[in-house]
Design goal:
This protein has a domain of 63 residues. Helix content is 58%, strand content 4%. It has a two-stranded antiparallel sheet with strand order 1-2. It comes from Todus mexicanus. This is ZBBX protein.
Amino acid sequence: MNINDFVILPGSKPGTSVRLKTKTVRELQLEKVQLETENAEMEKKLQQLQLNMRREKEERKKSGPYHWKSGQAGPMTIQARVLSQTKEKNNKV
């Protein structure tokens, strides 16, 4: 065991040391391959998402300018009433 394998962490109790983990070249290569694989998977997911979004955008364009097909007017909520009254007061001033 080498004394250089240990380091004192700032803010820790005096005399407390932690052994540094040294990664071997093999572990680093495995990690690199794993990250490359994850990166490729994420790129595929991104391309699929972009394709789906483009398709939905085209469908919206084809359906015309009106998106909402139904809706009913109901009683105004208290917050909506207060906002409309405030707007009216501001317009009068």
